[in-house]
Amino acid sequence: VYSPRWQGKVKTISVNAMRQKNVTSIALLRDPKERLTSAWKSKVACDEADWNTDTFERQNVVDNLLLLANRSQGENCMHLEDFLGVLHDIHEAGNDWMLNWHFLPQQFGCLYHLAPHEWTVASTINDPKVASSLSVALGGPADVSMPYAHSTGRRTVDVSEKARRLLDYVTQEEYAVLGHHLASSESHKTEPPPVPGHAFWVP
């Protein structure tokens, strides 16, 4: 928001102001299971060479997860099933709202004050309406697409049956909130692109 690259076209405004019709608001959503798997690879995985894991930050992230799960310290990385088990305990303890933004359920983030249907566009980044709405709101063309500029490794993730059950558990509320906004781009139920010149806000 504060980068000069926005050229003053993006503003920080109140939640009530975001509900005005002359404001274009965009919430970028991610599939909860894909998001957690990606966050695990990026922040806590043990096989850092395979996943481009951030080893500089990893210890602090792991310590915080164990603290929220009411588990003893001592680990410096986590395999996927262990990570999901810790998340399970965090959810069971009611501490999921305290997770850092890499793991925080999306209903506790930018959707906490505004439900998905209250945004001009609330969708995944592969939905063409996201790039189009952003571009038009900034005075650009509607026929644009988002660039791809991040990767957490190319190896296939092996997910055990236990890990699948844990993933189901820790993401069930998130899926309930996001609903059809996670559907394929062909079936997104978003509004038409905004009118050029509208005030614009994105979290």
Automatic annotation (TrEMBL):
InterPro entries: Sulfotransferase (IPR005331). GO terms for molecular function: sulfotransferase activity. It comes from the Eukaryota. GO terms for cellular component: membrane. Residues 183-203 are annotated as: Disordered. This is Sulfotransferase domain-containing protein. It comes from Noctiluca scintillans (Sea sparkle).
